[in-house]
Amino acid sequence: MERRWRPALELSAFVAAALLCAWISNHAAGPTRRLSWLPERAVPVVAVVAPAPAPVSIAPVQAPPKTEAPAAKPHPHIPIAKAPEAADWDPAALLARFPPLQGQAYADISGDETRWLQLHGALILDARRSDVYAAGHLPGALSLPVWEDGLAAKVAALKADPLLPVVVYCAGGDCEDSHLLAQKLWLAGYRNLRVYAGGFPDWMAQHWPVTKGATP
């Protein structure tokens, strides 16, 4: 007896098998490579106003004794800053030079502009994977990898002023991770997004300080 071909039934079985294989592959992936099955919902941003600085006492204070920290082993391609930089956070200066954008989600900026923003305490976000971030990143930059789990929660945890400039970068060149992160931030309510077009390779080429490790 000749077997009749049932396209609808066989197509349904093929789709079900493909979805099962995709679920098994995604479940077996590590936490830094697993993708969410459902789109992450953007979380509204709550602006936080920085408190007024407390009066500074001019009475002489005895400095604590200095302790020698163990010398870090230099990476052959990543220069290590001689001392951590203290960012001079100045929201008035930030807004004067980089006001909120009108009619566009984000704008590209140069390395010199990124360096100025970093020195004046602007929020800087690294869109690369967390292991690449740990190998070297801009001083003070937070890790928000777009291809890892929990991005929406990390965006919500920023609690930053949506009108102050925010710098986003990745590996530069053809890397689109910084633009993807900027789009998610814009959906979350940020209105002053600046993408460092040259990214981390350009920062390295300028021989500016670099921080290593899993923290800013």
Q: Just name the CATH architecture of one domain.
A: 3-Layer(aba) Sandwich
CATH class of one domain, anyone? Alpha Beta
Find the structural class using helix and strand composition.
alpha/beta
Task: Tell me the helix content.
Answer: 25-40%
**For the residues shown, what is the average pLDDT?**
78
Could you give a short account of the major beta sheet?
5 strands, parallel
Radius of gyration: 23 Å
Shape: elongated
- Spatial order of the strands in the main sheet? 1-5-4-2-3
Provide the low-confidence segments as ranges: 42-53, 55-59, 67-84
* CATH fold group of one domain: Oxidized Rhodanese, domain 1
Number of beta strands: 5
Bin the strand percentage.
5-15%
Q: At the fourth CATH level, what is the homologous superfamily of one domain?
A: Rhodanese-like domain
Number of helices: 7
Distance between the termini: 71 Å
Please trace the helix and strand order, writing H or E for each element. HHEHEHEHEHEH
Notes on the protein architecture:
This protein is of the alpha/beta class and 216 residues long. The chain has a domain at 105-216: Rhodanese-like domain (Oxidized Rhodanese, domain 1, 3-Layer(aba) Sandwich). The protein is built from seven helices and five strands. It has helices at 7-28, 91-97, 111-119, 130-135, 151-157, 177-187, 199-205, and strands spanning 106-109, 123-126, 142-143, 166-169, 193-196. Strands 1-5-4-2-3 form a five-stranded parallel β-sheet. The longest helix has 22 residues, at 7-28. The model is unreliable at 42-53, 55-59 and 67-84 (pLDDT under 50).
